[in-house]
């Protein structure tokens, strides 16, 4: 006899009498449309896959906690950072960027590093990568950039011509390209890489005073990377290598951890710093703005269900809490819209109500209806604002802090266009062995490019970063550095 706990039912809770045989007209059929259990199973199966993410489709996730280890309340009024020892539950999703949902974990690609903090004042999402910079600095170029990383519309193959044509025509990408093509382009595991907020954000304290900040997650496991030939071998044997490694480490009690540090810049320095501090293709020198410890992130619990937690988890840099604001970073400004919009399309208008995304504190607003509304939809309470019925109202003390803006409304680029100094500095920091591998990787990636024009244009960028850098790549491609 089946107990209530293991009694098979339909999605509407009715018991199922036969889950092995369709209802047919006689033993040979045909199948009858009245078999609503069959229709429900097939219809649900057809809809079991939500659209995959356009970017960051392949990912792994875990639960954990964040613990404050240093009092920085002088800089931010964010509640979850308010006192040493305070712990906040969190969820993280790691991902590759360009590949599809079934792609290999060990490809050369940046890794997404998206953290959701379930704070007492709402959720805070820190949505970054394992690199401190990005390929572009204006969101208007993002769709074009991602198109180059996807498949050719005719051949449905990856297209190195598009990749290097875009990069060679977008010299601001040089810094990130150098990182991607270096040893750090293929982390050994998700546990053995740093994470970064990448963008510049603004912290505001209880007195309304602000500072600019950048986030750095430093892995306590140490940085380890894979040689390209090893990564390729693993990809052929176990395409889910990183996903499996993270799950097994946590399952075995080997909990990965990261130390969170920030760089803090006074607001007025933004007007005089030698690089535009809002340009996400640039870093701030740690000599100018040293790392300051904030706390420690520990991952100690695996998801119970991949789809419900990892696949349906939604993150946006616009998911903010009091004490943390945004900056004029043009790439960040575009992401504030694009991420929430992507989730409304992919998961639904009520994606924030799903258990993995729902805030741990009370959520009170006037948003109603929409697909998959699974709570009481506000019941019969007041559904507009302002109102005279005691509905929730704003708290002016939690407005985002003001900052001064000026200038004409126009389509303009950043004022600073030195895309070569920081890439050259990075090249010169590498050991000779690391430089040799970097050059070998770039030469191998550029060899399939059909047009010498594209190769020469990109070689010119490498040369401007460091003459040796450009010369070695030119030689590897059998070309000369252009005049």
Task: Describe what you observe in this structure.
The structure is a single chain. The chain is α+β, with helices and mostly antiparallel strands and 483 residues long. Among the domains are: 59-148 and 184-349, Beta Barrel (Catalase HpII,  Chain A, domain 1); 421-476, no CATH class. 27% of the residues lie in helices and 16% in strands. The protein has twelve helices and ten strands. The chain has helices at residues 36-46, 142-149, 160-168, 174-181, 228-237, 241-251, 306-311, 330-346, 421-429, 432-446, 452-465, 467-476, and strands at 59-68, 87-96, 111-119, 122-129, 195-196, 201-204, 210-219, 257-266, 292-301, 324-325. Strands 1, 2, 3, 4, 5, 6, 7, 8, 9 and 10 form a ten-stranded antiparallel β-sheet that branches. Strand 3 (111-119) and strand 4 form a beta hairpin. Helix 10 (432-446) packs across helix 12 (467-476). The protein is globular.
In summary, what is this structure?
Residues 1-25 are annotated as: Disordered. This protein has helices spanning 36-46, 142-149, 160-168, 174-181, 228-237, 241-251, 306-311, 330-346, 421-429, 432-446, 452-465, 467-476, and strands spanning 59-68, 87-96, 111-119, 122-129, 195-196, 201-204, 210-219, 257-266, 292-301, 324-325. It is of the alpha+beta class and 483 residues long.
Distance between the termini: 85 Å
Determine the strand fraction and express it as a percent band. Answer: 15-25%
The helix-strand sequence is: HEEEEHHHEEEHHEEHEHHHHH
CATH superfamily of the domain at 59-148 and 184-349: Catalase core domain
The total count of helices amounts to: 12
Spans of at least 5 consecutive residues whose pLDDT stays below 50 are none
Structural class: alpha+beta
CATH architecture title of the domain at 59-148 and 184-349: Beta Barrel
